[in-house]
Amino acid sequence: MARGRMLLKKISLNKAVAELADDTSRMLFSWTIAHLDREGRIHGEPSLLRSIVAPRLNHITDEIVERCIQEWAAKALSSGTKWTVTGS
Question: By the 8 A CB rule, do 52 and 43 touch?
Fold first, then answer.
């Protein structure tokens, strides 16, 4: 299993990422990239995603993660060919 993924600096130029609702959504989105499997997938259940991506951030709730996932999907950030958020 890979130890992570490289985050390219061009993410900071991505309009859809910049237009996410808040820094929490942007942070979770970018941190999630490091945890994708080799097919570009990760569990889409909010509590599981939170426990994988931000286990030490107690202020990040399942509700916040759910809102972020929905926003990523609405902006087509999670449904492209690069990676997808999948259910359990």
Answer: yes
- 53-67: pLDDT as tens digits: 999 999 999 999 999
Q: What is the distance between the alpha carbons of residues 66 and 47, in angstroms, rounded to a whole number?
A: 9
Residue 12 and residue 65: Cα distance in Å, rounded?
21
pTM metric for this prediction: 0.84
Q: Which residue has the tokens 């990040």?
A: 60
User: CB atoms < 10 A from the CB of 53, how many?
Assistant: 21
- Confirm if 54 and 60 have CB atoms less than 8 A apart: yes
Among 36, 16, 34, 38, which residue's Cα sits nearest to residue 25?
16
Terminal Cα-to-Cα distance of the chain (whole angstroms): 19
